[in-house]
Write a sequence for this structure.
């Protein structure tokens, strides 16, 4: 009886260790979802890869490579697997994308890729306003907001906020260095989250221009100009 109790305790302890190991693996940097699906679902359900491949309508070799972690699970396979096993396809794809990104980041050669440079001659419109770059920080999110402050309006009105312009996608900036030489000229872009992005230079450089309040010229893009026209009609 004592032997049976000890054996049972050892079994529970080993099972607990196995669960801890599984949890640690899932918290790992970016595990491939294939081996997890194979171990936690197919093995438990007693389904072999060939049978699953037949049911899903996927080539057996292709599915085997995915479940072994040798091949990325594509969107089509993720949807099929998710429907068959009642799993969220989005979760499978998130795990796969994280895994793929981790693998790419390990390739140090990509770190030397340069930032894209302009290939067409850059011109600037004749109608523009002059001012300075500026930024404010959002302490709640730890992000910075970048803007343009028109110099003339600020001197005339004495209002610190007069002449303050948000930078719209498609606006053009011409930025000067301390010697009043053109340092940078190009379009204002927005990243996928709507934040200001200046192309052709590393972010650490152009962000410093805003922090230091570099002199610049601003020419409104089509969307920005259309906004002012609509406001004048109100």
């Amino acid at each position: 009886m004592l032997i049976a109790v000890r054996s049972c305790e050892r079994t529970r302890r080993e099972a607990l260790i196995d669960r801890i190991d599984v949890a640690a693996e899932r918290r790992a940097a970016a595990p491939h979802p294939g081996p997890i699906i194979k171990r936690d679902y197919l093995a438990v359900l007693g389904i072999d890869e060939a049978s699953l491949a037949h049911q899903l309508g996927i080539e057996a070799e292709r599915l085997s490579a995915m479940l072994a972690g040798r091949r990325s699970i594509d969107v089509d396979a993720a949807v099929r697997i998710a429907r068959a096993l009642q799993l969220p396809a989005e979760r499978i794809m998130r795990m796969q994308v994280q895994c793929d990104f981790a693998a790419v980041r390990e390739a140090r050669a990509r770190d030397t890729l340069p930032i894209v440079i302009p290939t067409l001659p850059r011109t600037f419109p004749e109608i523009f306003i002059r001012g300075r770059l500026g930024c404010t920080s959002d302490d709640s999110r730890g992000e910075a907001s970048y803007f343009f402050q028109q110099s003339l309006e600020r001197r005339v009105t004495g209002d610190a906020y007069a002449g303050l312009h948000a930078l719209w996608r498609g606006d053009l900036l011409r930025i000067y260095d301390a010697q009043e030489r053109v340092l940078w000229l190009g379009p204002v872009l927005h990243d996928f989250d709507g934040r200001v992005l200046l192309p052709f230079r590393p972010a650490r450089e152009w962000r410093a221009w805003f922090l230091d309040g570099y002199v610049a010229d601003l020419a409104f893009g089509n969307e920005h100009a259309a906004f002012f026209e609509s406001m004048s009609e109100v």
Notes: Residues 49 and 64 are 7 Å apart (CA to CA). The chain has two domains: 21-111, 129-233. Residues 2-26 form the longest helix (25 residues). Strands lie at 129-138, 143-150, 164-166, 172-176, 182-187, 189-190, 196-197, 215-219.
